[in-house]
Write a structure and sequence with these properties.
By secondary structure, the chain is an alpha+beta fold. It is built from eight helices and four strands, in the order αααααββαββαα. The chain is 40% helix and 12% strand. It starts with 28 loop residues before the first helix and ends with a helix. The model has no long low-confidence stretch (mean pLDDT 93).
Amino acid sequence: MVGGAVYPLTEVELHTQLPHDAQFWVPAADDLEADDGFGYFDNTWPIFNVSEAEARRITSIDRSLSVVASSLAVTESEFDDIATALETGSAEDIAGLSTEQLESLAPYMTDIVTLENLELGVAGLVYCLAAAGMYPAASCRGHPGPSAWSRIPVVFFATDRVRAQLLEPLVRDSGCGFNIGQSRGELLVIESKSIEGTLDLADALLGELQSFIAAS
């Protein structure tokens, strides 16, 4: 159940230390110039050279919209529908929401791309990783149902060893964990039981951003 700024929660074992077989690397210039990003994911694009101001803007919007979704949803399915409406700026194709929920969503239904086509709950973290000199490859806030690409919030990314080690305590203290991408073992994965962890990790990264920038 969700509601009152509580987010859908999926019980999963998290590993707070970097995997012993993690690969540390950064994409080549050709990878970053490709329209479809790197890592062979569908519907992705390169996000890099992000300014601190832009990371803070996206993180703030992400947190605000996540709170809205949580405050309006009663079930995990409703949260997913409401989050989709907030991400796309449209509730037209979403069935099952009450009149009151739709009225509360109305101020947010706009064609302005508030999260830059990323998903609520992970958009801020994606931009903060990029601002910190890391390279996000794909992300998902987690979705209910057996056909979901991911049941939990995840961000796939590449980075060098120094930044990965700087990130490790922030991941642990935010209630997130590390993994290695299945079939994409060259990529690290940040995962969490709920978007509360990914939202908190984005805030933690902003607080330590200068340490990551100085690691260049």
